[in-house]
Structures are given as C-alpha cells and as structure tokens.
Queue: 4 jobs
Job 1
Amino acid sequence: MSETISQTISGQTTCLCGSIKITATKIEPNFSACHCDTCRKWGGAPYFSLRCGVDVNIEGAENITRYESSAWAFRGFCSSCGTHLFYQIKETGEYNMPVGLFLKLEGLKMDVQYYADQRPDYYCFSNATREMTKAEVERYFS
Ligand SMILES: [Zn+2]
Ligand SMILES: [Zn+2]
C-alpha cells in the first residue's frame, strides 16, 4: 500500500495573529493522523500532519515557542496567539505541520494513522488507511 510520492505541493500560511508567516515548498500531499496521547492532549484531537521536509521558510520565527515534547522532537506554537505550527524532528530538522494550517492545498489524502491502539473509542475515521500501533510506530522510526 505504500506508494512513492513523486509530486510535492507548496503552501503558504500564517498563524492566527499573523506574526508568523510560513512557506513550505515540498509538502507531501499524503498526510498522517496521529492518535497518540501527546498529540491529542496538545491539540485536543488527533494530529493531522503533513510532511513538509526541511524546505520551510519562516518569517517571524522569534515569535515561536518550541516545546521539547520528547527526546526526539519539538512542538512549535505562536507565542502570541497559540496557533500550533509544527512538530519538528530534532535529528533531521524535518517539519511536520498541521493540515489545517494550510487552507488551500489540493490533492490531500489521509494515508496512515499512527498510534491506532491509543485511539479512544469515541471516534473513528471511515478513511481507508494503513494503521500502525505504538509498537509498530516505534519500531518503524527507531
Ligand atoms: Zn500568532
Ligand atoms: Zn502523536
């Protein structure tokens, strides 16, 4: 089920208050949903995340607060308005950004659901996707 993404898209957005402007030029249109406890606590719901790589330009970066949510990643948000901006892998610097930040992207498709075993029983998506448990995710990304 894993298909190689050859085409990336580009997007531009701002946080709610406008003090941060983000341009990402290599966004993969297939996105993931993460049901882990940390993502749900951070955003109040599963985290719909776009892989944006490292080709990301941020204006107003001094307004970003970075929180080290694990040994391997930071979560960034606007210090003024609180808009969630990214999950960034420390080792590679790769950005994963919320799908909802970008209002006009086309061709998006939910591809995989992470931490499916931490998904609470009060919701489920009908999208046909690959699902990975906590153990599978940790094995895959280690
Ligand atoms: Zn803001
Ligand atoms: Zn998560």
Job 2
Amino acid sequence: MHNSRLDDLRDYPFQKLARLLETIDPPTGMTPIALSIGEPQHPPPALLADTLAAHTADWGRYPPTPGTPEFRETVASWLKNRYALPDGMITEKHVLPVSGTREALFNIALYAIPQVQSGERPVVLIPDPFYQIYAGAAAMAGAEPVFLPADADNGFLPNFGEVSESVLARTALCYLCSPSNPQGSVADLAYWQNVIGLARRHDFLLAADECYCELYDRIPPPGALEAAAALDGTASHVLAFHSLSKRSSVPGLRSGFVAGDPDVVAGYAKLRTYTGGASPLPILAAATALWADEAHVKANRALYRRKFDIAERILSGRLHFYRPPAGFYLWLDVGDGERCARELWHRAGVKVLPGAYLSRPREDGSSPGDRYIRIALVHDVETTEEALMRLAATL
Ligand SMILES: Cc1ncc(COP(=O)(O)O)c(C=O)c1O
C-alpha cells in the first residue's frame, strides 16, 4: 500500500536525460562538460568555511525551526534594503529559514492546499516551462495543476489575463519564478502587482520563487514583496522564496528563507515544526554571514556577466540567442531540443537539458519547451568558453 498520488509524479528531468543519453558515447579524447544542471561551481567566499568552523560546537544542538534571531534579523534587513520596504513590513517575525528553497517550495503546498471532501479540486497555477518541484508539490497535495505557457510570444512570462474566472476561483496557490528558470525573464513591478491583485481578490497564495534575483546582468530585478509594498505596504497573500544556492554559489549548504504574509509565515512555521527541515545552527551562522556580505555577490555577478559576454560573442545571431536580463541559463531555440541534446553529447561531449523535460505536453502533444535546450553557465570562464565553442561548431 502506498499513497497513490505518488504515481502522478513524473521522472525528474535528470533521470530522463540520463536515459536519453545512456546508449550514446561522447567523443573520445574530449573531456565531457555538463551544462545540464544549474549547480554553481564558482568558489564560495572564505567566510563560509571560517564561520562554519567557528560554530563547530553547535553541531551538538538540535536547531529550532524558526532559526536564530540573528539570522532572521539579518534577512529582514537585507530584504528591507534590497527592496526599499517600508519600516515594519517585514521584520524578523516574518522570516523563516528553510533547508534550501526546493523543500520549502514543495512543502508550501501542504500549507496552502485545502482539503476538499467533494466537488472540484483546488488549483495550483504553474508557469510552463517550470521548476519541476511545483508540479510534484501540486500532485502530492491533491491539487490540479494548471500550466500557463511562458514562451517567446509573451516575453517568457505567463499571461494571467488568459486564466478563466472559474479557474481563478478554485486557485489555492500560484508559483511564479522571477527571474525565471529556464528563460531568465524578469517580472516588472506592474506584472507582480497584477498577480498579487489576483491573489488577493481570489484568496490564493502567491509563492514568489526568487532564487535567481541577485544574478542579474544590469538592473536588479524587482521582487514580489517590493510590489506588495507599493500596493498597500503589506505582504498579504505573498510569500517570497530566497536562496543562497545561486546568490552565494553554495548549493550544497541547503540554505534559504521564506518571508512575507505574517499569517502564512505563522501557519507555515507550525507545519514545519512537524515536517522537519530545520537548518542546523552552524549552517544558519554561515548563512547569516553570507546574507550580510555583498562583496562576494558582486564578484559572482561579474563572473556571470563575463560568461554571458562570451556566449554573446560566440552565439549572437544564431539559434535565436538572446541575452537574458538575469539568471545563469541560455534558453536556445534549436527546433528539436531532444535531438540537439543527443547530438551535442555525441559530437561535442557537451551535456545540455532538452527544454521538453522542463515542460508539460498540451492536448496536442506539444509543449512550450520542445524546441529548446537549456544551458547552465555554471562553470569557470574557460570551461564555459570551451563548451560554447564546441556547441557552436557542432550546431
Ligand atoms: C527555479 C528554482 N527554484 C528553486 C530552486 C531550488 O534551489 P535551492 O533548493 O538550492 O534553494 C532552484 C534550483 O535549481 C530553481 O532553479
């Protein structure tokens, strides 16, 4: 016996990719390069190891679910500065540490999706293509996922004007990723405000997935809390998800936070005392130090900018290349993403992710990701350049 909702979970994109490439050999004499996973390989700042070492004794203590006051205060002040939030809108009471936003994005569905005894299922709105956790969370919470295409025609952001009133009436949760994975598109303040307005009118929670917000090319992306502040100065119906994985190049630390609507934070904190996932105290101490430091983030941004410069030099005018305003992915229209991924592995030893694996087939069988490949510019400059040269020579 098991929870039959598990049967609705599809294979994760990296399992599909492993299957796609399992019978294909990369060329001999060429070191394979994986650009398929968004796992930053830039070295983290020294203060990470130093702070962890200084808190060794804390491994002997169970961490409290709400974390430490130092962590929450540092994060609240980071948010206030970053988004020019009004005094008191987000204080340490409105912040919770999470063990990476992946688990938090999954668990929020357990908080947000109501149990219905009969009648229509609650809806979760999900941009398409999307971070696959959203669909897994909707499935395990018993909700109906409604996918909103985010393709080139609509600037790679879902068009909420196309969601019917009857779907909005059933919506319990909406995931929105900005800067988005995989396209690197950025929601402006008006866009966020429109979605927040819908969330308030239809009483659903907006889960604003903003883990790429510090990796921008020129202009800092606006955030959901910033938009809420401009609307009425409250975070009602908004929960923002932030992570150190990309900002500070520490995906292995498993450290992020959520902040926003006071009622949601309180209820979610209660749920989290049961689900677990409290961040260990040495990790919280290191995370506090990382959120308080901007120098390493600036250096990180500069490194990504250099790699986008290289990508632009090599790919400009080809494969519908565009330079995204944020994030660290290239999203290239290659016509047939799966075919291209096989070809690149076989002929160039470069592993990329077919866009279809981040997307859902529509009724006609096609998906908004079919034509694309996603390329993660997460390696050092030299490796990235080598991979892009091989890719350009192959395609
Ligand atoms: C869109 C998006 N959201 C959330 C995450 C989760 O990041 P983490 O769990 O490392 O905070 C990722 C990781 O790749 C992501 O791409």
Job 3
Amino acid sequence: MSTTTVAPLAVHVRAVTKTFGQGEAAVPALKGVDFNARQGELLMIVGPSGCGKTTLLSVIAGTLNFDGGEIEVFGSSLHAMKPRHVTEFRKRNVGFIFQQFNLIPTLTCIENVSVPLLINGASRRVAEQKAEAMLDQMGLPGRGHDRPANLSGGQQQRVAIARALVHEPRLIICDEPTSALDKDTGSHIMDLLRDVARHPDRSVIVVTHDNRIFKYADRLTEMEDGRVQRVHDQAGNPDFSE
Ligand SMILES: Nc1ncnc2c1ncn2[C@@H]1O[C@H](COP(=O)(O)OP(=O)(O)O)[C@@H](O)[C@H]1O
Ligand SMILES: [Mg+2]
C-alpha cells in the first residue's frame, strides 16, 4: 500500500472527444482523452505539433465546446453547466496564457492587464494599481503606459502572463509560454509559475516544446494523435496514482 498522499484534483478529464468540421472534412482532434492535474502542481503537456494540445487546453479552459466525455475543474462539471455558467466560472477561476499573446492593441499594457479585474467587478482605480504592480513583478516597470506594439515579443509575452495572473485564478493554463522568450526571461517566468503552483489550492498546466523548461514540471503528460500516451515524473517514473 502506498503511503504517499496524493493532492486533490484541480482538473479531471475523462474520455473527452472533440472533432472539428464534419463529413469528409472532419478532423478528430481529441480521441478520448483521460487526464488529471492536481492542486498544488505544475503539470506539463508535451507532444508533436497537431496532436491536440491546444484543443485540450481550450476545452479545459471552457473556451471551446467538446463533443463527449467529462471535464471537472475544481469539482465543477463543465459538461453539466449551462454555457453562461461556464463563462462565469472561467472568468473567475481560469487564467489563460495564449501562444499568440492575444493582447488588445488599442489598450496600454496597464489597461490590458486590468481587463480580468474589471470583468470580475473591480473599480478602474484598483484594477490599474494591481495591474501596474503585476507588470513591475514581471520585470516591466515603467512600460505600463506603452501599447503592446511598442514592446518586443518577449515583453508582450510578459504582459500576457501578467494579465493571466493578476486576478489570482486557481487554474493557470499556458500554451507555449516561453516560446518567444530568451533563456533568462523564460527561467524568470517559469520561476513565477512554479511559485503560483506551490499554492496548495492552485494548479498550473503548461504546454511546451521547450526542453529547457521541463525541469520545472512536477509531472509530464505526453500526448500523441489525440490521446494521452504516458504520464511520468521528472525521473521518468510512470505515475500510477490515478
Ligand atoms: N479550429 C479548427 N478547425 C479545424 N481543425 C482544427 C482547429 N483547431 C485545431 N484543428 C486541428 O486539430 C488537430 C489538433 O490541433 P491542436 O490542438 O492545435 O494541436 P497542437 O496544439 O498539439 O499543435 C490538428 O489536426 C489541427 O489541424
Ligand atoms: Mg498548439
């Protein structure tokens, strides 16, 4: 009998399927995915391009509908929720760092980072103070009044990360967060995400190709062709606990 205590689940995915398009144009992106992320862990998802990583993140985040199976996030069943409630749940509980940053070009950096606070009901003054402090923490002091186009790719990525963390969501979902960053900035961002994941009631899921950052993962999930193939820890030991 194992004496290890396994932390409660943050995300529980069972037999999830998702097909894009119909008929001859149908592309099955998820073919029955089983997947768990625990509270207090940083979990990485790796796998070749096109294997379904972004699709999996999107259905967990509630930004994309799925066809079959079950998804629970912190015990709430997305498959059983009305779309309006999924949106509410996501706004409060999920921070998403997209591959393509998705910053709003007409807003300043402070305004971009304020958005999640404003949609959760904060006043503009409080939102902008918190946004500015978050940008400082990301190593971008004094850039708050710039628009994204005046920043480098790496700086824009740090703004996007600030926006995902500012409202302290319990689940942080990151699609290739270090792809536009140099090594030192990438390490700084991963240290921050590592700290977030140490909170016992939060969880960080990172999709990456970047083998320089694998060392930050508590567990790695390997995907291939729309399915999870293997879950293992840093030492390569398979994870049988689920
Ligand atoms: N909006 C979409 N419409 C049609 N096919 C899509 C769409 N998004 C993804 N796909 C397809 O689904 C599969 C999985 O894509 P994706 O989840 O983006 O993979 P990954 O992130 O691992 O590179 C790919 O074959 C991709 O072409
Ligand atoms: Mg992708």
Job 4
Amino acid sequence: MLLKKELFDFEDINKMKFFPGIINIYFHELSEENFERIIRWFVKHKYRFISTKELLDWYSCDLNYKGRLCHISFDDGKRSNRNLLKLCDMYDVPITVFVTTSALHSGNFWWEYVKAQYGDFEKFKSFDYDIFNGKIESLKKKHTINRSSFTIDELCEFAKNPHVTIASHTVNHPILPKVPNDVLEHEMIDSKEELEDILGDKIEYFSYPNGSLGEREIKAARNYYKCAFTTKQKYPSQTDDIMLIPRIALTGQYYRNLLKIFKIWQPIKKLFRFFNL
Ligand SMILES: [Zn+2]
C-alpha cells in the first residue's frame, strides 16, 4: 500500500466524511489551466480563499467566518507564478509565495543542475553538507540552464499585486537538518533580510525547504518568523503548533499516493476526477 504513515493521520480521514472545513494546499508551479480548475472547484464547493494573515487569525480563533476556508501557497519562487496573477485577481485568491533568495541572483535552484546531470535529485538530499555543496558547485560550472526563478525586478512587480504575500524559503534551499549551526542562522536570517530590503516590507512567514526539519530548525524559525509551513500532508487543526503548519501538496505524484485514500474520502476522489490528474 502506497499510503505512508505521515501522509494522512487516520484520525483526520475519519473526520473527513464531508468536505474539510479548512484546507491548506501548496504548489511549486502549475499551468494557468490547472490553477483555474483547482480554484473553480473550491469556488463551486463554497470555499473562501484566505491569506496567511487570515490563516493565523483562524489559528488564534480571531477569524470571524464560519464557512469553508482554503489557503494557497507556492514554494521556491518560480517566475512562472507570475502567469497566475490574473486568476488571483479574477477569483479573489490571496497567495503566499516562499522565495529562495540566492535564485533571484543565479536564476536557478540547485536541483535543476542535478537534474540536468543525473535526471533525479533525491539522492542529493541525503548528502552531508560539504559534499553536497562541492558537488553542486561543480555541476553549476558544467550546466547552463534557462532561468526559472524570478529576477529581482520581476519579484518587485509581482509583490505589488494586493493578492500576493512574499515570504522566506531560505537563501539556498538546503536540507536544513544537514547544515551546521552558523549556516542555519545565515539561511534563516539573510533570506528574510534580503527580501525585506528588496521589497521594503516585513517578511514574517517561512517554509522549510523540502519540509525537512528537526527541533533545531523549529526553534530557529520561532526566533525569526511568526509562523512556518511544513509539507506534513494533513488538514490544519487549531491545536497545531504554528511553527509546524501542515500543507497538502497538489502534485501529480501526490494524487497517485492519494488514490489509496480516495476509496474512503469521496470529496477528494471527486477532486481528483475533476482535475483529471
Ligand atoms: Zn522548496
């Protein structure tokens, strides 16, 4: 069975006989067509889209709204996210985009170089930090890749949209539990400060790259941010630690995993069919 223990708590599934009251989803990049289909599904089922600020209000029981809620975020800072803004405007969808700041300068993310060389990058996530860095630096010299990250100008323009909240996703997108203490501080603080300098606005939210974290990372996030997002695939609960906010990844691979769950979770089965994924 594909179902991994951390994918969903069975307790949650039992509660989900009907549509969840709140759902927190995230993407990296997706087509306008798929984004619109997803938005329209939530609109059809009477969900209201909320910003991260409103999500925090919900966590503190200050959000005065009794209907269904949906929070959407994007990790990494892909320039293709710009294409989705007109849909955010059209359907009044706030989004939070977690940006990796080194890619604003270099144009790309480390895994793109690994993919160019090996096709897959999963193995790299387990490397010790020094080995990881050495290999990535040599791959960067070897491959030229089309820019996939925002430029600084593009990010400034994107952030002007009132539906957009920009947040931090570290400087280099390392696997945080693998990095030494001083590098962890650099990754957490310098990404925040650079985004604040670029945008002239406070950066208050964080998402853990690859969802990788331990006690040390949670403590650091708590020092610098109001809340932090994980990749724990479950629904938000008001008892969550807001440094460990769960999110459901709507990706092709995830849907395949969910197939096992769909038998007992009808609304999402319909979602799956609707998106044709
Ligand atoms: Zn990421």
